[in-house]
Amino acid sequence: MSVMHNKGYSSANMLTLLDTIGKWVSQIDSDTEGIYRIHPHWPADLASDPIAEALSGLLRAIQQQMRQVTVQHAASVKIMGQLAEDIASLAPLQEVLQRICDTARYLLASDIGYIALLNDAKDAIVVQAGSGVSPALIGVRQRLGQGIGGRVILTKRPTVFKNYPAEVRRDPEVENAIDREHIISAIAVPLIRGDHAIGVLYTAMRSIHEYGPEEIELAANLAMLASVAIHNAALYDQTAWLMKINQEFAQIALIDNVLDHICVTLGKLTNSRVSVLDSRALPIAMGNRTVWEIDEVTGPLKKFFSQKSSADYSFTTPRNEVGILSPLDSRRGIAAVLALVKHPPYATLSERDFVAIDRAKHFLELGLNQLRLRHEVHLAATSAFLQNVIGGHFSAELLADQARQLQLDRPDRYGLLVAYVGSPSDVSLHRVAIQEMLAGVRIPIQHHSLVASMVEDNCFIGLSESSSIETMATYLHETLTALVAPYPVWIAVGEPCPQWLEYSRQWHNCLTTLQWHSRVRPQIPVISSTEYGLIGVLFDASNVDQVKRFCDVTLGPLYDYDQQAGSDLLHTLLIYLDHECELRSSATALHIHYNTLRYRLQQIASILSIDLEEHSTRQQLRMALWCQEAFGFLSPASSPKPS
């Protein structure tokens, strides 16, 4: 204080100086580039004062610091914007992962950034890409629930550690790899897609660093963008792989009826009737369709499969003809059975017959594998296309190009079929069976009859020609019911859409309808996606009990009165509300006198204990009537009295 007095400072001068500093701080604003500026306005009598000059220097330092922070913020926003652009673009997964690691490392000024993704078995995460790390870290595997990353996947929450060598959550299986990278401090944030964690994004320092809330929030925001980018990149890789497979097997796809041709040739060489059958005695290929009687091999076929052997099985038909069943192997075991029955008067199979059968089996197995691969390629391509259609993440041009490759022309020729299996906890056991059905027992795609795929363990989608969609829905219901018995199956039939993109909306409408239908009218197997109208979309099907109670409490007494008195007051109320509560037009619509309507409305108000003049009451009644019209909750004597 003495120094100030020696420099000539008075209380008034100090107040003036402090007031000036306050004005400087309040005058900090932002220009069009987001750079903060200070507009100093020194009093003339303080312009050359040493303390004032020191304070000015301090404020200039604050100004410079604020500029640096703003520039860093602008750079962060620019990089996040670039990542958002990457999400909308199509790029290989590995390229996208590397870009995310580089971005995380730059934004958080870290020494290291790396990503570990959930493996196919969903029991571990595996490091897929990194920035600032050695190649040895790539491929490191950590089991779920173990260490820090394994816990982040399960909890779906960010985790921070300051000193890894002293960390009690170290995982012995990965700590050597982490120590080789000299990681000391890090943030681990989950990568979440929908309700599921798909991986972990790490940003780390090789020195002790205490990450603050802002850094954790920035890493979490980056992880949200990265999750979408990873999902899109995975779809891109899948599509690219499918295109490659299509090209590689294009020549195979051009072969028509190759199995039938082999059966015809073998039949001529051995003077026999020849066919290729599946385990249900259904023909996959036949040499001569006019002379085969499949019943003559059904019994022997059952015995062949019951013996659980890959050896040939000889038999005699009811007409004393000699036959043989020989298994056709594929990469998945017995794919089918070659059935051969000698024509009379040949009573036995010669060595030449067996040589011909052996050679034919070689080509048949090749043909079966080719046929299966063709079906699987088609199934994979159609699955990717349908996933893109219902996901709504791709442009109309890309979807149209994929549709052309699948020989699908106008979108409005088709309708969406969505099948829902009524036991989500157990139906995964049947997923393989359904996939087998799609890969083998499916209508050829070139006939534009059905394009189908599994979406989830309990959900199946298909596109069918709208002209035959009802028949196809019935066929699918019968087929899926047989595959997943004893669980129930319901199918929703969507409407044709003029654009492929619009099928995403149809998909969600069908799902909502099925969720309601399985709870409200489970006895009906096939329904329209518009069965429950707007109400079915507005209400969550998991709240069916609450919606039913709302309908019962609001309209139940009136419904019960109609049932007991044989009146039609519920219908009167519906018409009255539909005509905006206008008496004369409502009476005309009901074909009753104006005064009769007034009397009925008085009855309704008395029975329900309501005031029909209140706007909120009318809205509540409208909603309850819509629910009743959509779901039919009310039944005689079922409505509880309001508590």
What would you say this structure looks like, in words?
The chain has 643 residues and is an alpha+beta fold. The chain folds into five domains: 71 residues; 136 residues, 2-Layer Sandwich (Beta-Lactamase); 117 residues, 2-Layer Sandwich (Beta-Lactamase); 126 residues, Alpha-Beta Plaits; 91 residues, PucR C-terminal helix-turn-helix domain (Arc Repressor Mutant, subunit A), CATH 1.10.10.2840. It contains 21 helices and 18 strands. The strands form four sheets. Strands 5-4-3-8-7-6 form a six-stranded antiparallel beta sheet, sandwiched between helices. Strands 10-9-13-12-11 form a five-stranded antiparallel beta sheet, sandwiched between helices. Strands 15-16-14-17-18 form a five-stranded mixed beta sheet, sandwiched between helices. Strand 3 and strand 4 form a beta hairpin. Helix 3 packs antiparallel against helix 4, helix 7 runs antiparallel to helix 11 and helix 9 runs antiparallel to helix 11. The longest helix is centred in the middle third of the chain and has 41 residues. 31% of the residues are buried.
**Whole-number count of domains:** 5
Going by CATH, the architecture of the largest domain would be 2-Layer Sandwich
Helix coverage percent: 40-55%
What order do the strands of the largest sheet run in, or round the barrel if closed? Answer: 5-4-3-8-7-6
CATH class of the largest domain: Alpha Beta
Q: Which parts are unreliable, with pLDDT below 50 for 5 consecutive residues or more? A: 1-10, 28-42, 248-254, 440-448, 637-643
- The CATH homologous superfamily of the largest domain is termed GAF domain
Number of separate strands: 18
What radius of gyration results from the CA coordinates? 37 Å
Beta-strand portion reads: 15-25%
